[in-house]
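Reply to dn_fold:

You asked what the input looked like. This is it:
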Amino acid sequence: MTLTLGDRVRYLLTAEQAAEINSRRFNASVDPGDWRPTGVQVHVGSRVIDGDVVALDVTKVSLDGQINGRALLDGNDVLWVTGVSEGTEPGTWQRPVGK
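and this is what came back:
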């Protein structure tokens, strides 16, 4: 399977990424009296851990096989990742099962 733009693969979150995601979700609170007309993005979603597998939409494929993409999280936010290689450890991507 040769990856192209728009393909969806599996991505394994790293411990650092999981901490970042959980932190922004934990710290996401808005005081109802502090409404701002320009808008505030409150991040909500399920807690994640090191090694969790999420879907990743491929946005760039490099000649060396590394990819960039948008990891789809179980919530209202996403995680952008760059320079990701195929593999089995956290921080790598895998082909979808059966593809």
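Residues 1-27+49-99 form one domain.
Hope that clears it up.
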